[in-house]
Write a structure and sequence with these properties.
Elements lengths: L5 E2 L1 H6 L6 E5 L9 H8 L6 E2 L22 H10 L7 E5 L5 H12 L5 E4 L2 H7 L27 H7 L6 E4 L3 H4 L17 E2 L15 H12 L7 E4 L6 H10 L6 E2 L3 H5 L11
Parallel strand pairs: 1-5, 2-3, 2-4, 4-5, 6-7, 6-8, 8-9
Helix pairs in contact: 4-9
């Protein structure tokens, strides 16, 4: 059975020795970029390969393309192939920060046409709390050939600018309400939001245990957000195109497929003073 949204800790544990599954550790801390790799070296789920948000899941920044621009597709496909991913592999990603970094990898795999990708529900924290296997051994992956092609699952700043105020488009901002209002901005040089965007803090997708809420609850919430519009009317943004993927995943779990990502998000948008902004 293929998993294309979530996989449980029990299901992953049953497949630790399955050569058809590839596990990625995506732990990261925006304030301490090297901490994920350090934590991985100390302990990780057996067989997991490590991917770094800045070095593997993003392209170099220019000051105008956001904090986490998408990498070159061919380069990222080589990264996946080196890690042993091919078209037949089931990929599972995890982190220890509510799933936002794992969701970024999940979205990127789908972007390149690999649908058999899932996020570990509850992540590293749930796995460790349950006393499941951990190791410091670095796996030696057998290289594979990953062949994909980018799908039309994203929009750029010009597309967002053209659609401002247009009916039939919903721009959903995944940041906290405080950052959405432009208050106490600590990650980007300018506080605020893209005009007309509505706030859906990604943490609202989770229950108190850190797992995703039931399908019915997510579907109810996002259906209310959509109103009478279809899922493909939604464009997701955040600070840098990472936590927005959490909302994309939540909509997919809810059976509401077709929404898109603005990868540059606020960090790209605010780099050009000619673009309109809102606060409050």
């Amino acid at each position: 059975m293929a998993h294309n949204t979530l996989v449980s800790t029990a299901e992953l544990a049953a497949h630790l020795d399955d050569a058809g599954w590839v596990i990625f550790d995506c732990r990261h801390d925006l304030a301490k970029p090297d901490s994920g790799a350090q934590d991985y070296a100390k302990a990780h789920i057996p067989g997991a390969r490590f991917l770094h948000l800045d070095r593997d899941l993003s392209a170099p920044t220019s000051g105008r393309n956001g904090r986490h621009p998408l990498p070159d597709p061919q380069s990222f496909m080589r990264t996946l192939g080196t890690a042993g991913v091919d078209a037949g592999k089931q990929v599972v990603a995890y982190d220890d920060k509510t799933g936002v970094y794992a969701a970024r990898l999940w979205w990127m795999l789908r972007w390149l046409g690999h649908d058999n990708a899932a996020v570990l529900d509850g992540g590293y924290a749930k796995w460790a709390k349950e006393g499941r296997a951990l190791t410091s051994a670095i796996p030696q992956a057998a290289p594979a050939h990953f062949a994909g092609r980018p799908r039309a699952m994203s929009v750029d700043a010009d597309d967002v600018l053209r659609s401002l105020g247009a009916p039939g488009r919903i721009l959903v901002d995944a940041r906290s309400a405080e950052r959405y209002r432009g208050e106490n901005e600590t990650l980007d040089p300018v506080g605020g939001r893209i005009p007309g965007s509505i706030n859906r803090f990604f943490r609202e997708n989770l229950d108190p245990s850190g797992c995703f809420k039931p399908v019915a609850d997510l579907r109810r919430a996002y259906t209310a957000l959509l109103g009478k519009l279809p899922p493909d009317a939604v464009v997701h943004s955040c600070g840098s195109g990472v936590s927005a993927c959490h909302n994309l995943l939540a909509m997919e779990i809810a059976g509401l497929s077709g929404s898109r990502l603005y990868p540059g998000s606020w960090s790209e948008w605010c780099s050009d003073a000619s673009r309109p902004t809102e606060k409050g």
